[in-house]
Specification:
The protein is of the alpha+beta class. It folds into 2 domains: 108 residues, Helix Hairpins (Orthogonal Bundle); 136 residues, Immunoglobulin-like, CATH 2.60.40.1400. Helices cover 35% and strands 21% of the residues. The chain is built from 9 helices and 10 strands. The strands form 2 sheets. Strands 1, 2, 3, 7 and 10 form a 5-stranded mixed β-sheet that branches. Strands 4, 5, 6, 8 and 9 form a 5-stranded antiparallel β-sheet that branches. The longest helix has 30 residues. The chain is elongated, with a radius of gyration of 35 Å. It is found in: Membrane. Belongs to the inward rectifier-type potassium channel (TC 1.A.2.1) family. It catalyses: K(+)(in) = K(+)(out). This is G protein-activated inward rectifier potassium channel 2 isoform X1. Pfam families: IRK, IRK_C.
């Protein structure tokens, strides 16, 4: 008995016209370029604020808080100012010591054992500069020493000692504060690349995950989120970067975190949520950002920590996805908790 064998049917694609075939690669290339265009973000994914201050006229205000200005500078500029301040101080006082020796005539009596100079063995500007360094840094080699026959030198020695202590306190304090800043601690706090919108306990929620890579914990960690988007008021005023708080559990205490293992932060989309009137199609067109702020104290140093991250609507917010829980190994009792506690009390 013969069976009919059906052969696969080859479907040929219709041949496109020549001008369409030539324009198609150009259109695809144009679309790829548009897709690769960087979206202007208020806060970058790594937490750096993408805001640059321009047309600042009252720049003297930065000098009124010079300590904070120096701490906020980059390391290269900070080290340059550190070296510059000490070098200028040594040069100024070195010139003052040389000027005293020049006015008193010490430079004209070099090698005269009958002459008592202001500073022994100070015979040039270089030696005055070295004596200035020895005085301010309290090295005291003993080769160059001030004599008691020079009251102006004694006064200059007092002034340099006091000003040197002030410079040391200011510059060393500035470097210490900059080194102990907890900015690098934020590098070990990891946020999920994407945020998801899905159902949880019968409620539509926006969720994302946060975790800590270090064994030392963040003390009193709390988290908050803000929605940044343009807004037009009823009066017609346009606000380009309006900030709206997103409830991530501050009314129930869920915003206070015990960040030992990765946690999923949940924002319920209800009538009080800024996403209440946002649909999936609307989300793809809307220009908005979600800025997440994690605050706490570093356990090792006690410094206040603040970490930022950002979720963009088109690239990082996924609709109807879920956060997968991770397998966490921990030791647990094999009996009931009540029986386990009773056995511990015994």
């Amino acid at each position: 008995m013969e069976q009919d064998v059906e052969s696969p049917v080859t479907v040929r694609q219709p041949k496109l016209p020549k001008h369409v075939r030539e324009d198609l690669p150009k259109k695809l290339e144009k679309l790829e370029k548009e897709a690769k265009k960087k979206i202007q973000r208020y806060v970058r994914k790594d937490g750096k604020c993408n805001v640059h201050h321009g047309n600042v006229q009252e720049t003297y205000r930065y000098l009124t808080d010079i300590f904070t200005t120096l701490v906020d500078l980059k390391w290269g500029f900070n080290l340059f100012i550190f070296v510059l301040v000490y070098t200028v101080t040594w040069l100024l006082f070195g010139f003052a010591w040389w000027l005293i020796a020049y006015v008193r005539g010490d430079l004209d009596h070099i090698g005269d054992n009958q002459w008592t100079p202001c500073v022994n063995n100070l015979n040039s500007f270089v030696s005055a500069f070295l004596f200035s360094i020895e005085t301010e840094t309290t090295i005291g080699y003993g080769f160059r020493v001030i004599t008691d026959k020079c009251p102006e030198g004694i006064l200059l020695l007092l002034i340099q000692s006091v000003l040197g202590s002030i410079v040391n306190a200011f510059m060393v304090g500035c470097m210490f504060v900059k080194i102990s800043q907890p900015k690098k601690r934020a590098e070990t706090l990891v946020f999920s690349t994407n945020a998801v919108i899905s159902m949880r306990d019968g409620r539509l929620c926006l969720m994302f995950r946060v975790g800590d890579l270090r064994n030392s914990h963040i003390v009193e960690a709390n988290i908050r989120a803000k929605l940044i988007k343009s807004k037009q008021t009823k009066e017609g005023e346009f606000i380009p970067l309006n900030q709206t708080d997103m409830n991530v559990g501050y009314d129930t205490g869920d915003d206070r975190l015990f960040l030992v293992s990765p946690l999923i932060i949940c924002h319920e989309i209800n009538q009080y949520s800024p996403f209440w009137e946002v649909s999936k199609a609307h989300l793809a067109k809307e220009e908005l950002e979600i800025v997440v702020i994690l605050e706490g104290m570093v356990e090792a140093t006690g410094k206040q920590l603040q970490c930022f991250t950002m979720q963009n609507n088109v690239q990082t917010i996924r609709w109807r996805y879920e956060c997968i829980y991770l397998n966490i190994l921990y030791i647990s009792p094999i009996c009931l908790v009540m029986v386990w506690k009773v056995s511990l009390n015994r």
